[in-house]
Write a structure and sequence with these properties.
Layout: H1 45-56, H2 60-76, E1 106-108, E2 122-124, H3 139-159, H4 162-177, H5 205-208, H6 211-221, H7 230-249, H8 251-257, H9 262-277, H10 281-299, H11 307-310, H12 315-335, H13 351-362, H14 381-389, H15 393-398
Antiparallel strand pairs: 1-2
Helix pairs in contact: 2-3, 3-4, 3-6, 4-7, 6-9, 7-8, 7-9, 9-10, 9-12, 10-12, 12-13, 12-14, 13-14
Length: 425
C-alpha cells in the first residue's frame, strides 16, 4: 500500500498512553462548527479534532499539509470503485466474492504450456516480487480501496468538502457492502501459490498491514459525513464483526496468531484494532498487553536491532515494516490504557531502542550496514515521528533530518505510522 502488547509482571511497566497531537490546515478548508472527535482505533480522535480546529484557525504548517493530502485525495476522485468480482477467474474455492492474492516472492520454473499453464513448480526468491501477482488477483485493487478510503475520509474531515466523503462512501460500499460486488469476510485464498496451496495463513498480512486505516476511515465518516448512512454504518459493523470472528477462529487465523515474526505482530495489531472498532475493548486491551512479552521481547535485541528482519534481502524495508506494526499497536494501546512505549524487556528491549537503531540511516548520518535490495531512507520517517511523539529525545532531535516520502510528510494530519516504501505493487 501506498502500502500489541504485555501481562502479569509486565503490568508494572504498562501505563496509560497519551498521544501528542499535531494540528493541521489547508488552503481549501470550509468554516464549520467545532468538529466531532472520531472514535478511531489507531489514530487519536481527540488529537484529530484539535488538529482540525487549528487548521480552521489558519495554521500555515497544517495548511501546507492539507494541500498535500487533498492532492492525494483528488487523484482518487476519478478512479474506482474496485471490487473482488472483477478478477478474471474466481478464487480456488469457486466463489467470485472471495478475496484472492498470489504469493509475491514465488516464481514459476517452467514456461507455461497448455498442459502446465502456470509454469509449475514455483520456487521462492525472497524479496524479489513476481510481477504476475499484480494481474489476475485482487491484490492491487484492495490496496487502492484501502488507500483511497483513508485519503478521502481524512480529506473530508479536514476540509468539509462533500465530494471526498461521497467518493469514500462509494468505494467502501462497493468493496464491502453491495450484495453484487461485496467481498466475503475471510482470507481463505490470500497469497495462494499455483499448483501448491489454494491459500495460506501468511496471506492475512495482505489485510493486517493496512486494513486498520479503513477502520479509522469509517470512524471519520461516522462523525457526520454526507451520504454515509446508518445502514452503511450497520453494514460495516457487521462485516467487521464477521471478519474478526474469522480471524480469531479460523485455522489460518490461529496459525498467523502463532507466528513469531512480523506476521504475528501485524496479526495482533489487526486483531486489537478490530476488537476496539467493534466494541470488544477487553480483547483489544488483552491483545496489546500480551504483545509486550510476546512480540517486543523476542523480536527486538538488546541493541535495538531486529535479528529476524536483518537476515532478509530487504532488511531495511522489513525493519521499518515491523515497526509500523509495533507503533500502530502502541497507538491502539493508548485507547485501552496501555503504554507499550514504556515496556522494557528482560535484556532492555524496547520500541525506543528499535527506532533509535534506525536513526543513523534514517538521517543519512551513516549507511545502512545490512542487505537491502532497494534502500529508501524515507521508509523510516513515520516510525521515527511515532517515537518522537512518544517521548524519545533522540528521535525528536532526528525529525528535522528525516526524508519526506513521495507526496509529502503527512504526519501532522494522520499521526500513525504507514509503510512508506510499500512493495505491495
Amino acid at each position: 500500500m501506498r502500502a500489541r502488547p504485555c501481562l502479569g509482571v509486565l503490568l508494572a511497566a504498562v501505563t496509560a498512553f497519551t498521544a501528542v497531537a499535531v494540528p493541521t490546515a489547508s488552503a481549501r478548508v470550509t468554516t464549520q462548527p467545532a468538529p466531532k472527535a472520531p472514535d478511531t482505533s489507531v489514530l487519536d480522535g481527540k488529537h484529530l479534532r484539535q488538529t482540525k480546529m487549528r487548521l480552521d484557525r489558519g495554521d500555515p504548517h497544517l495548511r501546507r499539509a492539507v494541500t498535500a493530502l487533498t492532492a492525494r485525495a483528488d487523484r482518487w476522485l476519478d478512479q474506482g470503485p474496485w471490487t473482488v468480482v472483477d478478477k478474471p477467474r474466481p478464487a480456488p474455492g469457486g466463489d467470485i466474492h472471495d478475496y484472492l492474492s498470489q504469493a509475491p516472492y514465488w516464481w514459476p520454473t517452467q514456461r507455461p504450456t497448455p498442459e502446465n499453464p502456470w509454469g509449475c513448480p514455483y520456487v521462492q526468491r525472497d524479496g524479489e516480487r513476481n510481477p504476475e501477482v499484480d494481474s489476475g488477483t485482487d491484490r492491487q485493487d484492495v490496496e487502492k480501496t484501502f488507500d483511497s478510503a483513508y485519503d478521502l475520509s481524512l480529506a473530508w474531515y479536514y476540509t468539509g468538502e462533500q465530494r471526498y466523503a461521497r467518493k469514500a462512501g462509494q468505494v467502501l460500499r462497493t468493496w464491502f457492502l453491495d450484495p453484487a460486488t461485496r467481498m466475503n469476510p475471510n482470507l481463505n485464498h490470500a497469497q495462494f501459490i499455483p499448483c501448491k496451496y489454494d491459500g495460506r495463513a501468511i496471506g492475512i498480512i495482505d489485510f493486517s498491514q493496512s486494513y486498520t486505516s479503513v477502520l479509522d476511515a469509517l470512524a471519520l465518516l461516522d462523525t457526520g459525513a454526507p451520504s454515509w448512512t446508518e445502514k452503511d454504518r450497520t453494514g460495516m459493523t457487521k462485516w467487521n464483526t464477521d471478519f474478526l470472528s474469522w480471524l480469531k477462529n479460523s485455522d489460518f487465523g490461529k496459525q498467523e496468531a502463532a507466528a513469531t515474526n512480523n506476521h504475528g505482530t501485524f496479526y495482533d495489531m489487526q486483531l486489537a484494532a478490530l476488537a476496539h472498532a467493534t466494541g470488544d475493548r477487553r480483547l483489544a486491551r488483552r491483545t496489546v498487553l500480551d504483545a509486550a512479552s510476546k512480540r517486543i521481547a523476542p523480536q527486538i535485541a538488546s541493541d535495538g536491532s531486529q535479528p529476524q528482519e536483518l537476515t532478509r534481502t530487504r532488511s531495511w524495508h522489513y525493519s521499518t515494516f515491523t515497526l509500523v506494526a509495533h507503533t500502530r499497536l502502541a497507538a491502539i494501546g493508548r485507547h485501552v490504557g496501555v503504554n507499550l512505549w514504556a515496556y522494557r524487556g528482560p535484556d532492555g528491549q524496547s520500541l525506543f531502542k528499535a527506532v533509535d537503531y534506525l536513526l543513523p540511516a534514517a538521517t543519512a548520518a551513516a549507511a545502512w550496514p545490512h542487505p537491502e535490495l532497494a534502500f529508501h531512507r524515507y521508509a523510516a520517517t513515520d516510525v521515527v515521528h511515532a517515537a518522537a511523539d512518544a517521548g524519545d529525545t533522540r528521535a525528536r532531535r532526528a525529525v528535522p533530518a528525516l526524508e519526506a516520502p513521495p507526496g509529502g510528510d503527512l504526519w501532522a494530519l494522520r499521526p500513525a505510522a504507514e509503510q512508506l516504501d510499500s512493495i505491495a505493487g
